[in-house]
Amino acid sequence: DTAVSQTPKYLVTQMGNDKSIKCEQNLGHDTMYWYKQDSKKFLKIMFSYNNKELIINETVPNRFSPKSPDKAHLNLHINSLELGDSAVYFCASSHSGTGATEQFFGPGTRLTVL
Amino acid sequence: GQNIDQPTEMTATEGAIVQINCTYQTSGFNGLFWYQQHAGEAPTFLSYNVLDGLEEKGRFSSFLSRSKGYSYLLLKELQMKDSASYLCAVRDQYGGATNKLIFGTGTLLAVQP
Question: Is A45 on the interface with B (CB under 8 A)?
Answer without folding.
Answer: yes
